[in-house]
């Protein structure tokens, strides 16, 4: 399985996947930490987090997969949602919560 | 290491901008407001893609992060008044 196939498998088998630097417990970048925080505030309890610092192949591969040059990257039900700015903006205007509810993946906020 | 002015120049070279402001003084993290008529009809995701595309492979490598606020000219008219700019 090449890295593109691996990514496709991850984002289609897990409802919420976050490609980030570090882990949700120990984020190693402020932007990754911000997305983790927004997901928590949205009531999300189950996130499949992929630490791109553990694999340079994954770190490059995810940029190609989404045609998006930076980390973090959030996927909901296989769809690329955005990076830190977009996720925060969508949280502030309620779009993210709606998207999570529509996807049936929001927990109790 | 990059200056905000250089980032601004690169974005303007690759994208028609009605308004652009770039800030950031550590050489790797920047924030920008970009207003372009090209954004009409695009999702926020694609507006951000269009800006980041002007920076090519610098984005995510030499440039660690570019915080973005993108607006269509019509939306900017509203936001500009709200921000009192």
Automatic annotation (TrEMBL), chain A:
Transmembrane segments: none annotated. The keyword Transmembrane helix does not apply. It holds the Pfam family Glutaredoxin. Keywords: 2Fe-2S, Iron, Iron-sulfur, Metal-binding, Redox-active center. Residues 16-81 form the Glutaredoxin domain. Signal peptide: none annotated. [2Fe-2S] cluster binds at residue 29. It comes from the Bacteria. CDD domains: GRX_PICOT_like. GO terms for molecular function: 2 iron, 2 sulfur cluster binding; disulfide oxidoreductase activity; metal ion binding. The keyword Iron applies. InterPro entries: Glutaredoxin, GRX_PICOT-like, Monothiol_GRX, Monothiol_GRX-rel, Thioredoxin-like_sf. Belongs to the glutaredoxin family. Monothiol subfamily. This is Glutaredoxin. It comes from Azoarcus taiwanensis.
UniProtKB/TrEMBL annotation, chain B:
GO terms for cellular component: cytosol. GO terms for biological process: DNA-templated transcription. InterPro entries: BolA, BolA-like_sf, BolA/IbaG_stress_morph_reg. Gene3D superfamilies: BolA-like. It holds the Pfam family BolA. Belongs to the BolA/IbaG family. This is BolA/IbaG family iron-sulfur metabolism protein. It comes from Azoarcus taiwanensis. The lineage of its organism: Bacteria, Pseudomonadati, Pseudomonadota, Betaproteobacteria, Rhodocyclales.
